[in-house]
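User: Run a structure prediction on this.
Assistant: Running it now.
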Amino acid sequence: MNRPFSPIYIVKAFLSVITHIGITFGVVAGTVFFGLLLAILIAKARLSKYALFQKIASLYVYALRCTPSIVLLFIVFYGLPKFFLVVCNVNMNFWPKIIFVVIALSLLYASSLSEIIRSAYLSVGKGQYEAAIAIGLTPFQALYRIVVPQAFVVALPNLGNSLIALVKEGSLAYTIGLIDIMGAGNLFISRNYGGYAIETYISLAIIYWGLTVVIEKTFSILEKRFSKGRVNVA
């Protein structure tokens, strides 16, 4: 049965959906943590002097960036339990769905994040690293006191964009039954027998728009703060 558009249901849907935003934050936080660890390894491999490591890392980046996120999510959700059951005799079928979402998105996020890290690292002239070594700093000190702070500033805009993309990609988690804000929205529609879908999706759009604005403003502030006193050297 068709129902007339009801603005009040935008508010009702919003209040129903927003209670599940913690799950969405959990997915994003877990993906950023594990994706960053994997991205650092991939970036190091691509910058390695060994051709084999470079090729493996390049193949990973190419393959993952060409794989739709929803396809990768289904591969992880349906394929990983079968793989572990056969190889390790571990039953993953009753594991929380958020684990599979974080694994899939971490694999995908790491591919793009590794390129951000690599390009930011290469943007810092080698001469600065060599000069730091020459004045007595250890390679570790030269990297984390000279190279990383400058590379971080260069990477900030792309990091913000990748985080926004991650938040939006996380909305696909409902396809495997995870009840985040997107899943809660679909449950709200189901409870109303398929009605008020437009109102519900408008409320979801408002939430995602709000998250995007917060991320953009946060990274803009960070970029301005860490760019103070920075001089570009040609």
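The longest helix spans residues 139-169.
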